[in-house]
Amino acid sequence: MTYEAGTLQGEQLMIEDGTPRRRRRWILIAGIALLVAALAGYLLTRHKDAPHAAPADQAPTVTVLVPGAAAVARQVSATGSLAAKREMPVGVAGEGGMVSRVLVEPGQWVRAGQVLATIDRSVQVQTAESLASQIAVARSDLVLAQAELERAQSLVDRGFISKADVQRRIATRDAAAARLKVAGATYSEQRARNARLDIRAPAAGLILTRGVEPGQIVSSASGTLFRMARDGEMEMRAQLAENDLQGVRVGSAAKVTPVGDTRSFAGRVWQIAPVIDTQTRQGIARIQLSYDPALRPGGFASATITAGAESEPSLPQSALLSDDRGNYVYIVDAEDRAQRRDVKLGTVTEDRVAIASGLNGDERVVQSAGAFLNPGQKVKPVRARVAGQ
Asked: What NCBIfam families does the entry give (predicted)?
């Protein structure tokens, strides 16, 4: 009995002695776990805050430029039709008749006064010959009247002829001279009428159309038989919106490109319409062009007109960016932070773009690499080097 009691007491003692050890072990494990969790939380928090806590010397370096402002010629685009600058309709100036010959074709150059077509003049020629004969008769009558007057004047002093007879012979001589003048004037008139039977070019130029054939009966009521371009000069009648027309001046340079042709032809505005169409709100600028076979009157063409110069900033194309909101650039503010600036483009050339609005010209604009920046991002601006400096 005594042995069993001792055994039970020993086991109870062992149990009582193990309980504090387990408690200390669990406390130690819990402390280590808390320490690990705290360390993990610290590291995570530091990782999240790292971009914002980056030192200033890690800010990206960007090249900036100050565009300033310069006179930039504004380009105005327009469309319109080609035409002869001075188109001359040619028709019958005289009595007309049957066309006997047509001497020119469309596309042919002619000089001033050149015969384009002739009208049969067989009857008119006979009339002219008759009038020429009447001139000869009147001239003979004048010679005879003058001779009789001279004889009478030589006999009046000798008393063979009275002064009244001399006066009658003077009147006869004067009447013969007047009839000669009338005959000559009538003959000249007929010759002028016959000359008008030839249809002639009123000036040097290019034949555009031909509307007559041999055997055709024509008169002054027949209308236009030929159409000419004086000196071959062409023009484009460019249709411009009302606001674009305000910047165009007489003498403004232009480039015209006919439809279907890749070439552009240089010209200058020589006339601007004094009125605006009330329906389309457009006006016409007439661009003078030198002759070229590709410039066919009635054809369609597009034009780029250099309008008046305006003072605008200009940037290299590398500084321009665009997205669904439109065109923009990045500028660097006073705190050296990149800021987005929306802009409106003006004239675009091969290497530069004029800024119509959005910039004053005194801003520091990021020259390139703007696509890698974010609004408000800290940067280190470096001024772009200018050639020659």
From this structure: RND_mfp
